[in-house]
From TrEMBL:
CDD domains in the cross-refs: TOPRIM_TopoIA_TopoIII
GO molecular function annotations of the record: DNA binding; DNA topoisomerase type I (single strand cut, ATP-independent) activity
Residues annotated as domain Topo IA-type catalytic: 159-574
Protein name as annotated: DNA topoisomerase I
Keyword Isomerase part of the UniProt annotation: yes
Keyword terms, alphabetized: DNA-binding, Isomerase, Topoisomerase
Annotated InterPro entries: Topo_IA, Topo_IA_cen, Topo_IA_cen_sub1, Topo_IA_cen_sub2, Topo_IA_cen_sub3, Topo_IA_core_domain, Topo_IA_DNA-bd_dom, TOPRIM_dom
Signal peptide positions on this chain: none
GO cellular component: cytoplasmic replication fork
UniProt GO BP: DNA recombination; DNA repair; DNA topological change
Renumbered residue ranges of the record's region Disordered: 348-373
Organism: Streptomyces halstedii
Length: 791
């Protein structure tokens, strides 16, 4: 028997094997074998597959009447992800050889690494084994060896706080599917057949972009004019209490030129910016025409080849070991991306960027350094070239010196309330390597960057300004907003952003045009439905994280905190209903009232009595309470109904299971005759009925269209299984029986089939006009058809 070390993914397993001496073997007297997951091997099943069969129909339908869900109804059943059967088979075999199973998945703040390990153990049935936990700061050789030697004993899945909090978050997000159903129902009630997907991150994105888009679109420029001074070095001097005027002519000319007084000089410095995360990297690439989904897929390929580090990290710093691993590669990386190695003089770890905690470390170059950016582009395309260039320069900037500048402050001598600030660069430092904010411009209070500093004399002038227009939403803007509110990680923001902006999706929430971001149709409807809702609250993630901390600490249970979701669903149904009414009024949409539903126990259901719900309206007629009771009792009912052609008929039927586009549903099923009687206005004779039942085809020219009332001809047969007449309007093999309300004789059809042209009279067009024409039966547009000629 051996100790089985379970890594989160193949790349981590390779690092484990490298540190311990191979995929299997003995490390300091302990026999081991390294196994690997591939992320989440399992996912929750659909809601209707998680409940008792008597509730399945209720949980499958998207009707508001079926919300909220009761978490106690759900078994939290899982099913394998796609394309992981081989991984599961290998894992099961390896685990079977172990007497100790080691959790060596990532140590995520969210507990995700523990969750994906335990869900695999749970589904494969390996509870009761001896478990331990490897706790490592990174995947360096030293960290892995130390973690293996000092692995912590684990009693059970439920004793692990990281598992408990991660399972709660996973269950909460699953229950949040109800909010998608609410929003979608409101959309359909407003006559729009859209699926409006909601979630903690999706809804936050929609709310932020929608609000900012509204602010941007409703901006009204309000110009103002004000006295200011400017010196010969273009430094501006302002007085914060100086009056502003609506018109230039209103500004009093009360100032005269004056000398400038230098008040102070101070040397200042700024350290390199933090390393790029996946969201900030993707934001920069969007500005260069690279979509977020391409960034994700390209980065993943580069990671698998060890050209860059793990993409989905939540770390913002790297560990000392990770710093040491990259140190020998720095000059080589610099040469690849065209950075002067002479600028990289800060070759000691910065406490702001290197910390002794983390897992994968922040995004950075990988251990395999390409020979050139051209090589990167040949293998990974333009996106790969940009990814490596930015990621490498971001890291190299941390090895450059601080940016140094002298800040000069002064005022106008005659009017000392007018103050100016100039920043004089002294050493570019890291800014000569990589500046992620280049082009953004400094804030007004930061002062004017000038190589000359403050001037000697200042001239008064009338400054024309205006209220600042809100920034147009962009990916970069959105990612900053989400980061400020601590909603999601850089990786989850990027993957969710890619999902909601995917122009190939059926219902995208956001659209990108260049750098600009706007609401798509589904996004705008969501934005109008979200105000005041729980799912749309930007503080929702903070609430979920607080719950996770309480559950991890044992101050609460997942069941307690999940119980409130039902109340939130009820609240959001009411809130979205109010918002939907306002939305319809503002957009000119009409409310579409859905059919009422009947509920009860269907006594005659397949497999025995079960609780069902079904539409109370059929063919324009609502069932009475007495009829509903009879249907649930398994009885057959009859009533007068209206056909789709608007003609009255007697409908007879019972409750049954129907099929609509592959989806099974319970509802009133019309009883159809066991034999053909009539079709399209023509009643079949007993002889014809016998022939149709025997499988023969019947040809006639006196069928009548219910829609137009016009006579037409075709061949019909009887589908015994479906119990319906099946028409055949002819094929390329032979001419039709009639055309434009004229029935052909057998001789005419024979001539047409032989390729002859025949004279025809009394044809009636679709517009009801009579005409004569010479007609032939020939191929036109890839298909044989009647072709008329005139004159």
């Amino acid at each position: 028997m051996v100790t089985v070390v379970v890594a989160e993914k193949p790349s981590a397993a390779r690092n484990m094997a490298r540190a311990l001496g191979g995929t299997k073997g003995s490390y300091k007297g302990t026999a081991y074998e390294v196994a690997s997951l591939r992320g989440h091997l399992y996912e929750f099943a659909q809601p209707h597959a998680m409940v008792d069969s008597s509730l399945a129909d209720i949980y499958q339908r998207w009707d508001l009447d079926n919300l909220p869900w009761d978490p106690d109804d759900l078994t939290w059943k899982r099913e394998p992800q796609k394309s992981v059967a081989d991984v599961i088979k290998t894992l099961r075999s390896t685990l079977g050889r172990g007497d100790e199973i080691v959790i060596a998945t990532d140590l995520d703040p969210s507990g995700e690494g523990d969750l994906l390990f335990w869900e695999a153990i749970d589904e494969l049935g390996f509870h009761g084994r001896r478990f331990s936990r490897m706790e490592f700061t990174d995947e360096s050789k030293v960290s892995i060896q130390r973690a293996f030697e000092q692995r912590r004993p684990v009693k059970s899945m439920q004793d692990e706080s990281d598992y408990r909090k991660a399972m709660y978050r996973s269950q909460w997000d699953y229950l949040s599917m109800q909010f998608t159903r609410i929003a979608t129902a409101m959309s359909r009630q407003s006559g729009q057949n859209l699926v409006l997907r909601q979630g903690r991150l999706k809804s936050a994105m929609v709310s932020l972009v929608g609000d900012q888009q509204k602010n941007y679109d409703s901006y009204v420029k309000e110009p103002f004019f004000q006295n200011r001074f400017r010196d010969e070095n273009d430094v501006m001097y302002t007085n914060p209490v100086e009056s502003r005027f609506d018109l230039k002519g209103q500004v009093p000319g009360q100032y005269s030129p004056s000398a400038v007084v230098l008040v102070s000089k101070a040397d200042k410095e700024t350290a390199p910016p933090r390393l790029l995360d996946l969201a900030s990297l993707s934001s920069m690439l969007v500005g260069k025409g690279v979509k977020a989904n391409l960034t994700l897929s390209t980065y993943q390929k580069m990671y698998e080849d060890q050209v860059v580090s793990y993409p989905r990290t939540a770390d913002k710093t790297i560990t000392p070991e990770q710093y040491k691993d990259l140190a020998p590669l720095v000059d080589k990386i610099a040469a690849v991306v065209g950075v002067d190695a002479g600028l990289l003089t800060h070759r000691r770890p910065r406490s702001t960027h290197v910390k002794p905690q983390g897992a994968h470390g922040a995004n950075r170059p990988g251990p395999k350094v390409p020979s050139s950016l051209d090589e990167v582009e040949r293998k990974y395309g333009k996106a790969g070239r940009l990814i490596y260039g930015m990621l490498a320069k971001s890291y190299l900037a941390t090895l450059a010196e601080d940016y140094l500048y002298e800040q000069q402050k002064g005022h106008v001598e005659k009017y000392p309330d007018f103050v100016g600030i100039a920043n004089v660069p002294k050493s570019s430092g890291w800014r000569a390597v990589f500046d992620p904010d280049i082009g953004d411009g400094p804030a007004e209070d930061d002062g004017h960057e000038s190589g000359k500093g403050l001037g000697r004399n200042a001239e008064p002038f009338i400054f024309e300004g205006a209220n600042k227009r809100p920034e147009h939403p962009t990916m970069k803007w959105l990612m900053k907003q989400l980061e400020q509110r601590d909603v999601g990680t850089g990786a989850t923001r990027t993957s969710t952003y890619s999902e909601v902006t995917n122009d190939r999706a059926r219902y995208p929430l956001l659209t990108e045009k260049g750098r600009k971001l706007r609401l798509a149709q589904a996004g705008e409807m969501s934005w109008r439905l979200l105000p005041g809702t729980r799912i749309g609250a930007l503080g929702l993630t903070e609430k979920v994280y607080a719950d996770m901390r309480d559950i991890a600490a044992g101050r609460a249970t997942a069941e307690e905190r999940l119980a409130v979701v039902a109340d939130w669903v009820r609240e959001d149904i009411a809130t979205m209903a109010r918002n939907a009414a306002s939305m319809r009024a503002e957009l000119g949409l009409k409310e579409r009232v859905g059919a009422a539903r009947a509920e009860g126990v269907w006594q005659d259901a397949p497999g025995g009595p079960k609780r069902v719900a079904f539409k109370k309206l059929w063919s324009g007629r609502a069932f009475s309470d007495d009829e509903v009771a009879k249907l649930l009792a398994g009885e057959t009912i009859s009533f007068e109904a209206m056909s789709t052609e608007g003609k009255p008929f007697t409908a007879t039927g019972a409750l049954g299971v129907g099929d609509y586009k592959g989806r099974k549903f319970v509802g009133f099923q019309l009883k159809v005759p066991d034999r053909p009687t009539k079709w399209s206005g023509r009643t079949f004779t007993p002889t014809e009925v016998t022939a149709l039942l025997a499988g023969q085809a019947l040809e006639s020219a006196d069928f009548v269209s219910a829609r137009t009332g016009k006579t037409f001809g075709c061949r019909v047969s009887w589908d015994a299984k479906a119990k319906k007449i099946v028409p055949d309007f002819g094929s390329d093999a032979e001419p039709p029986q009639s055309w434009c309300q004229v029935t052909f004789t057998d001789a005419q059809r024979k001539d047409l089939a032989a390729g002859k042209i025949i004279e025809g009279t009394g044809f009636v067009s679709a517009q009801g006009k009579t005409f004569d024409a010479r007609i032939s039966w020939k191929t036109e547009g890839g298909k044989k058809r009647i072709v008329p000629t005139f004159g």
